[in-house]
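re: ur question from the group chat, yeah i did fold both. here u go
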Amino acid sequence: MTPSAQRYADRRASSFAAARLREGPDLFPESTSVRPGSELAWQSRWFAGHFGRDFTSANGQAVRIVQFGWWNHGAGPDFRDCAVEIDGVLRKGSIELDLDAADWEGHGHAGNPAYEDVVLHLYLFEDTNATRFTRTAAHREIPQVRLDPGSVPPGAVSIPPARPGRCLPAIRQLPPDDWLTFMEDAARFRMDRKARRWLRVASVHGEDEAWWQGFADAFGYARNQLPMTVLSQRLPLRWLQKRLPDAEAILFGVAGFLDGSALSHGDEPTRQYLRGLWESWWRYRAEFAPGEPHAPITWTLSGTRPTNHPQRRTAALAVVAASWKRIRPFLSPAAFDSRKAIALLASLEHPYWCRHYTLASAQASRPLALIGRSRAAECMANLCFPILLSERPELWEDYVRIPAAPVSERLRRAGLRLFGSEAATSDAITRLWQQQALLQIYDDFCMQDASDCARCPFPEQLASSSS
């Protein structure tokens, strides 16, 4: 670990127990305006704090909301990374808000592992003649709180994704050079951690498989990183390389995308494309089709941009496999050139997927980049630079010149928390390395805090570092 990364690691370790540090999810809209009366409207009022913080559960427990978390508009519980005190015991997890107490069962949450971390179930209405319990798939009982609809004002509200934290004044008062040093320490720490993860995979499966799984993870974005990684693990690169003519079909089949429905409902280019895949897939179907003993890969589709649909990302992975002999030389420390590597990834094409968003979509009116320069640059920043920097320290100068990537929802929340506004964030964060540093700080401090900022040590650390 570099001295810079070690400085950040020491600061990080002194703030929270290392066992609690973890990655946060990546989802939150910039603002939310909703119709009164809908479930979204009640969720909006809840998140705005209109119901208050203190409640009594259905079985008489004292419930206090310490931290409202962030509002999840995708699959899974409604509010993530919350902190709730129940009879004085702090619990961290998710909160689900339903219109009716029966919706927990009616919506299938009871059997859905994605709801296993829910620590509080909120609802507004119930059948007083029925007694209902909220339980997870593991049969853990979840405290229930009935909210009083008459206790809040009517009408829709507009809510920012985050509010400024206590660290905002400390950041503003910190000398600019000190803040840049702190940011560099955080960025280097993040890179070092990614490199160590990659090295662990390489030690088990070899470097090529580690690169293969790394590309799959990068193509998965925040919502589908795990499914893409599982796909690359089930179909190792060395195995696919021996079956390149069939590789794309096998990837799509194992991913669960060859169910036959688009063969009859898709447009003519789609039907032709799928017929070609099926001509290969049928020979492997019995061995690899989702189902026992191969658990189906579960994809997250809600909230996913069309260009990031898992089917397009699977196609990109297939093209990487087919182009591996061209790509692999750029991944060696001696030959690595980020500009050439970005240009190569951005140039990869697919005759079908450069005109379609999904197997069910109509043909696009304009060509679509399979990977694109922005995603290619992020692959370099998140995968290649962290791994190669230890052997070529001078690559840091290339890394810090990479422009900022499109702002994710997690970056937007982090920027509002630390800088107070999107305009201030745009002024302060102009390079991709700064985005990575901001995410690391947000993960290590904001996401680990369970006091709604009140007891987070980050502001005091900043103040002491400048004294």
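okk and heres the other one u asked abt
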Amino acid sequence: MNNEQSIPFGPWHPRYLEARALALSVAAIRKAQGKRNPADYAVGSPNWEAGDEEFARDLLRALGGE
């Protein structure tokens, strides 16, 4: 199936480096605040899931959301 409206996102995409910089900035800020990042937990563990959700909320805040 060829979907012409599909926009692949990866290192070749113009916004990739911006998204990566934002994620690294949020991770650094969380570390400075004494918070743990998802990478600090075993993938799939309950702590990882909770940390991943907290990280996503912080990303949304960095983008100007609630």
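fwiw on the second one: Residues 22 and 59 are 8 Å apart (CA to CA). The chain has a mean pLDDT of 89. idk if thats what u expected
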